[in-house]
Amino acid sequence: MTKNMMIVGVGGQGSLLASKLLGHLLLGQGYDVKVSEVHGMSQRGGSVVTYVRWGERVYSPIVDKGEADFIVSFELLEAARYLEYLRPDGQIVTSTQQIDPMPVVTGAAAYPEALAEKMKALGAKVDAFDALTLAEQAGSSKAANIVLMGRLSHYFDFDESVWMEALEACIAPRFLEMNKKAFALGRNA
Length: 189
Prior knowledge:
Layout: E1 3-10, H1 15-28, E2 32-35, E3 39-40, E4 47-55, E5 68-73, H2 76-81, E6 86-95, H3 102-105, H4 115-121, E7 125-129, H5 131-138, H6 144-152, H7 160-170, H8 173-187
Parallel strand pairs: 1-5, 5-6, 6-7
Antiparallel strand pairs: 1-4, 2-4, 3-4
Helix pairs in contact: 1-7, 5-6, 5-8, 6-8
């Protein structure tokens, strides 16, 4: 059975590294894996979506509405924006970070309030936590993506050593210890 994940956020937040890490991890567990290219405005500030699909045999990297087993979101509004893609029994793992989109920056709109609560009220399973603060504790705000991967690891039956091997394979040695700390902070959040 094929599983589907969407990684959503804003350009510059590290969704490419997160999808590369997941792809490496899942291939290492014997799955056929398809990871899409980034869709959206990948320059800093634009909405970005990456798809990761895995199973015995996967033919397409695209996830349709109502099919995502997981949505991993780097930013709260992005989680809400892609909610219709989540399966009825799907799981959202999201940072509570809020980045104002252009309509909010220009004053044309206000950032929506209580988004995690609103998504829960619609029946979504939402695991929302402050990944940015944990990343800063690990040594860099840029490690929020790895904090999210640590939190996501709770929803997989893989040993922590498998995640560590994927980190070692995908992260430059000079950033490895900080990212291992970020992963651990997310996993234990």
